[in-house]
Amino acid sequence: MQLEFFSHLRCRECGRLYPKEAIHVCEWDFGPLEAVYDYEAIRRHISRDRIESRPPTMWRYREFLPLEGEPSVGTQVGFTPLVRADRLAKALGVREVYVKNDTVNYPTLSFKDRVVAVSLSRAREMGFPVVACASTGNLANSVAANAASVGLESYVLIPADLEASKVLGSLVYGSRVIGIRGPYDKVNRLCSEIAGKYRWAFVNVNLRPYYAEGSKTMGFEIVEQLGWRLPAHTVIPMASGSLLTKIAKSYREMIDTELVEKRPFAIHGAQASGCNPITDAFRKDTELVRPVSKPQTIAKSLAIGTPADGYYAIQTIRKSGGAAEDASDPEIVEGIRLLAETTGIFAETAGGVTVACARKLIDSGKIPKDESLVLCITGHGLKTAEVLSGVLDSPRVIDPSLREFDRLVSSDINRAPLPTRSEG
Fold this sequence. Notes:
Keywords: Lyase, Pyridoxal phosphate. It comes from Methylacidimicrobium cyclopophantes. Helix 9 packs across helix 10 (242-256). This protein has a domain at 82-108 and 210-388: 3-Layer(aba) Sandwich (Rossmann fold), CATH 3.40.50. The protein starts with 5 loop residues before the first strand and ends in a 10-residue tail after the last helix. The longest helix is centred in the middle third of the chain and has 15 residues, at 242-256. It is built from 15 helices and 13 strands. Strand 1 and strand 2 form a beta hairpin. The strands form 3 sheets. Strands 4-5-13-10-11-12 form a 6-stranded mixed beta sheet, with helices on both faces. Strands 8-7-6-9 form a 4-stranded parallel beta sheet, sandwiched between helices. With 424 residues, it is of the alpha/beta class.
């Protein structure tokens, strides 16, 4: 069924068309390729009722995804909660905040399960015997887990200094995990060379046009969960910039196929200050994204110094009327704590970046306080729990005595209440 909707690949620069193969750059101008669809056919075929009748997974939007048949990997991925966060809204000083909570995505607790479900399903359609990736952590976990679920052999290449929890989160699935000395960009460069020599499906290299499309499902879900309306503002963390561009693409596709009413929507990008090539270029009013050779941030999942989609992310932000911000390490930790304390959602460092940057965008007036806002939280805090070491209070220890417990509770009651974060 997918064959009639997913038509071909197209260069994002010159528009040349390519067959649906394992290629990712244009042979004429080296522009990146992306999947395109027959939107008129989708519009005639799809409806809100048809989507709502399907199982609650990302595949309820399968007409917008680049497969030729039914998905064979990650069939339970997606449709994570969109949480109305009134206490967080109060702390941020805005009317309405929603949190798109991919910390509970299946199976590896990050949005990467979306892109991997698409790319590995496509890899199986194309007959690849081995799947692989370059990763800052979450993608490695997802490739390892989803490959294991269907018996695919996998290799994941990561920076050697990655968080221990993310390394273990790949090793446990039996994947061949290879640490590379140096930053992510050197890992990615090596993977491009390997992909050129071995007949392997590198999800974010030769299968990138398929892989990237999986990110759109986060946007589709946001719109449906808001009652089939576009949010006025969406704040999205940026590493390569791909997630941001694809969520914007999902909004446009829903407009083009008449699933939602056309209305303005602003897309905002969030980066860590220690690796902020996209926000730096945006701030300087240029589309020239200067690489960061040595990222210095606790948000390692966002530490891509040469973002593949940086140029397109800047274009997307500007065209939508959005803005870009970045956050320091202390601000990232504060963002993690604020989200947890007001919503009960424990996010990894990328989520702290999103919350911290949203606060800055609100305080600067770039996000009006009387408009709706969605925060995209992309991974679970247990993946980067070490950044909170020494930050949180230690448990209070008492003997197994009711008298001691009474004394402790009495001191809590008599202690003056601490100011909330919104009060300073």
